[in-house]
Design a protein that fits this description.
With about 425 residues, the chain is mainly β. It contains 6 helices and 24 strands. It has a domain of about 130 residues: YerB-like (YerB-like fold).
Length: about 425
Amino acid sequence: MLGSIGRRVPAAVAALGTRRLALIAPVLVVAFVGAAVAMGGDDSTVRTTEEDTVDHPRLVSTSKGVSTSSKPTTTTTPVEPDVVQPPTAGVPLEEVPDSDSAFGSPGDGVAAQPPEPWPQGCCAPLTNLGFDSPYGPNGPAMAVKVSNAPQADPHTGLNRADLIYELRVIGVSRFIAVYHSRDVDVLGPIRSARTSDPPILAALGTPIVAYSGGNPRVYEVFDQRQADGFLMNARYNINSGWFFRTTDRVLPHNFYGHRNAIVEALGSRATPPTPQFTFLADGTRNASSTPASRIDVVVSGTKSSWTWDDASQMWLRSQYGRPHVNKENGAQIGRTSVIVLGTQYRQSTADARSPEAITVGGGPAWVLTGNTLTTGTWHRESERDTFELRDASDNPIGLLSGPVYVALTDVAPAVG
């Protein structure tokens, strides 16, 4: 049954005609900063505004059908999740709110500069471009859990990730940034791991995964994945020398890591990544692509906009109403391809408050590569498989060479 889901969803794409506001009602909480100080880098127990409950209607697929629920989850005791099925064909996702006003404001302000150019040449597996990483093509992939709370913006080194996943946590989004081909050392702010992460990363091979901590159940999951050869753990309580805190931000948004130190220590037990998407041959385009210039994306309580830039030949990201830039030099985050995958979520077995992405199955897909959009579906047979992208006529969807962004969201994008 799973094998057919991804090919039956084109109706969901066609059904997205009516725009609806998704209302965000933030709930204020008190952050237990003293606990974070005591625990060093393990900030998984520090509750901040990014872990508040949010009244945000979204589709929930259960054994009794599909319903739209806006009731926030307030349970704090870990429980076993309900049985939740993959997305149902023909059911539209929510559309993007029109206003940025509900999404807060970022921390430090940094003047935006053009995106950094990417190395030319061939053939890094995640970008199909060249390398400037000191580890070259045989270096390991390293995935980093990066906070996207307003207090974490602007980020350090996120613009040099070959591949960025954005997914729901509690109230806002969080990134999985995958590094391989670029020369970059300091990364962050880094946050804790979630049970969504290992299934997303399983197709990479055996990457290093860097994160600040997690609750005991998350540690069990990651330790078992390492024992099974799926990943190499790089977390604070393994070697605190890999990580550090800055003094210019408050806990837990001041936790950073050194990629080079981590790769030197664990790289021999990790692997280079395998390609995650199909790249188009030079001079070709997707069969059913149409021109596009902008897409608005909502992941949990975070709205971003991607606008096509002819000068850089990239999609440029803005969030919280301003360009999303690198903290050190102001370079705006740019991607050659922006992919939005309609994704359902369920309760995590590690924490009933925490959403867990269902990334095996299928759903609608919006693929922007170059200045074009192709709508279709995604399908993934197992965790070890990559996301297969096809248009409404069942043609494969390919990407132009360059860095990639993927949103895993239960909110439909608005395309301009």
